[in-house]
Amino acid sequence: MDVLAFPYGGQAQIMQRQIWPFRKPLRLVSRGPVWEARPSAMLMWEGVVALNRAGVQIINNEMVPPRVMRAAGYRQIMTPATTALVDLRGTYGDWLAAMTAKWRNALRRAEYAGMTVDVSAFLRSHHKWILDADSAQQSDRGYRALPAELTQSYAVMNQDATTVVTASDGDTPIAAMIFLRHGNAATYHIGWTSAKGREVCAHNLCLSTAMDVLADEGVAAIDLGLLDTQNAPGLARFKLGSGAKPVELGGTWLSLPWWRPRPLA
């Protein structure tokens, strides 16, 4: 993973993956580029043009307007997705009020189930079991996520920027969540739960604990990931039930050699 920094404060993380049948690795920016403060359209254009010249073929756009993307040499290939964003800037009472009644009841059940909850930074020697469990879960459910190596590399490159919340029944882990922190925000990265964890609503307790811990660390929002009401309606209900709000992103954009950047009108 490379980080391309722009002259006026913005940046983008570039991932590189080998995908069949392409001979060269695919260079991708997911949920970027980003700036701390929203810049002018011209500065956005300069940033996206820099990504184009760096060989980035696909951008899952975060905040750049369509006209800027087109002028920078990209064309939209997928309509905008919607993500779930939890606002942590209020009080605990505000968070509870934003939750649905069903989600709050599940949280109360989890709190009285006698679980222990541990919060720590990601350590490969201690938390590799979560990556293994997530990999098995992907195989069982027939989907693919980002490779486990990404989690390990992120933890090495960004020390103390990972938060792992583990719920246990006695000495046995029954649920876990991993969050990646970046600036004043965090992203829900991986989640796993056992049958026992589902029975006692352990993920409700894990997420509520993460909200409390991350807010104390200055995190203003948690991105719980994309909402897919068609293929994963239960997960979408869980995310929205936690008080998260749906936020539309900027779509997926592709660059090909004959689509050259042009001046921004």
Proportion of residues in β-strands: 25-35%
Poorly predicted residue ranges: none
Query: Sheet bearing the most strands, described?
Result: 7 strands, mixed
The run of helices and strands is EEEHEHEEHHEHHEEEHHEHEE
> In percent, how helical is the residue content?
25-40%
For the record, the count of structural domains works out to 2
What would the principal axes of the Cα set say about the shape?
Answer: globular
Strand order of the largest sheet: 7-8-9-10-11-6-12
Structural class: alpha+beta
CATH domain fold name of the largest domain = Aminopeptidase
What's the tally of helices? 9
How much is the average pLDDT? 91
CATH class of the largest domain: Alpha Beta
What's the Cα radius of gyration? 20 Å
CATH superfamily of the largest domain: Gcn5-related N-acetyltransferase (GNAT)
CATH architecture of the largest domain: 3-Layer(aba) Sandwich
Count of strand segments: 13
Q: How far apart lie the N and C ends?
A: 33 Å
Keywords:
alpha+beta; Aminopeptidase; six-stranded mixed beta sheet; 265 residues; seven-stranded mixed beta sheet
Spell out the blueprint of helices and strands:
Blueprint: E1 2-5, E2 11-17, E3 26-32, H1 41-53, E4 58-61, H2 66-71, E5 75-78, E6 82-87, H3 92-98, H4 101-111, E7 116-120, H5 124-141, H6 148-157, E8 162-169, E9 172-182, E10 185-193, H7 195-199, H8 202-216, E11 221-226, H9 233-241, E12 245-248, E13 252-254
